[in-house]
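C-ALPHA CELLS:
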Amino acid sequence: MRVNNDSVHNGADQFFQWLAVDPQDGSANVLFYDRRGDPRNRKQIVVLARSTDGGRSFTNYAWTDEPFEASSDVFFGDYTGIAAFGGRVYGVWTEKPSQVPDSETKAEDKHSGIHGIMIKVGVSDFKSSTARQASIRLESP
C-alpha cells in the first residue's frame, strides 16, 4: 500500500514507518522519515500520512519544516512512535540537530557543535476545525 504522495520511482527514500489506527474515527495514520525534498536523497523530514477512507487514499502532512541529515557519526535510532485517539494524532521521532558554527557560540557555551540527537513530538488535531494543526499539508508535485 502506498501512503506517500510524491512521484512514483523518483528515487526518494521513505523509511522507519509506523502505523496507528484511531479507534474512535477509524483513520489510519502513518509516520515516516521522507527524503522527497532533497535531490541528493540524504536529508529527510518527518511526515504524517493520514487516511480517512479505509486506506484507499492518504493525505501527507509535514511534521518538520527543517530537513536534517542522518549521518554515520550519530545514531538517531531505528524506531518512531505514533498514537491516535479521537481525531488527534501524536508522533515521536528523533532528529540530528543542526550544527551551530563555532563563530556563533561563546567559549563557555556547552551547546555548540553537534551533540547527539533530539527527541521531537508532533501533534495534529483533526477533530476540531478551530484547533491549530502542528503540521503542513504536502501537495503532490
